[in-house]
Design a protein that fits this description.
- A zinc finger (dksA C4-type) spans 91-115.
- Residues 86-121 form the Zinc finger DksA/TraR C4-type domain.
- Keywords: Metal-binding, Zinc, Zinc-finger.
- This is TraR/DksA family transcriptional regulator.
- The chain is an all-alpha fold and 123 residues long.
- It has a domain at 6-89.
- It has helices at residues 6-43, 49-85, 100-105, 113-122.
- Helix 1 (6-43) runs antiparallel to helix 2 (49-85).
- The longest helix is centred in the first third of the chain and has 38 residues, at 6-43.
- The radius of gyration is 20 Å and the shape is elongated.
- The relative contact order is 0.15.
- The structure holds zinc ion.
- Residues 91, 93-94, 96, 111-112, 114-115 line the site of zinc ion.
């Protein structure tokens, strides 16, 4: 159990749901852009190597962004699942309260700040 009150948990759930919608829209936009690229690549003249190389570089940046969005979406969904099962707000490593200020800043946070720092140093 954590010290989060029901209204606090509901506010954080709303924050997570809004973030989830935003991420889904961003990932959707990436897919639309990808389809557009495939179409224009088909019709592009075969000798446009410079343009293609430039596009490949741009695609790599966009793919990295899409991966970050996807990773965050996974974390947001996991946080929503923890709200459902009642484990939300507790550090997954030490079981202590993650704390409301940290959850407001990172609603999908898995660990308290101390354990997060340790986990990042270990990585
Ligand atoms: Zn902890």
């Amino acid at each position: 159990m954590t010290t989060l009150t029901t209204p606090q948990t509901h506010a954080l759930r709303d924050q997570l749901l809004a973030r989830k919608e935003q991420l889904l829209q961003e990932l959707d936009a990436v897919q639309v852009a990808h389809r557009e690229r495939m179409k224009s690549a088909d019709s592009a003249p075969q000798d446009a190597y410079a343009t293609q190389a430039n596009q490949v570089a741009q695609n790599a940046v966009r793919d990295a962004e899409a991966r970050r969005d996807h990773d965050e979406l996974v974390a947001v969904r996991a946080a929503l699942a923890r709200i459902e099962d009642g484990s939300y707000g507790a550090c997954q490593d030490c079981g202590a309260d993650i704390g409301l200020p940290r959850l407001h800043a990172f609603p999908a946070a898995l660990r308290c700040i101390g354990c997060q720092t340790k986990a990042e140093q270990a990585a």
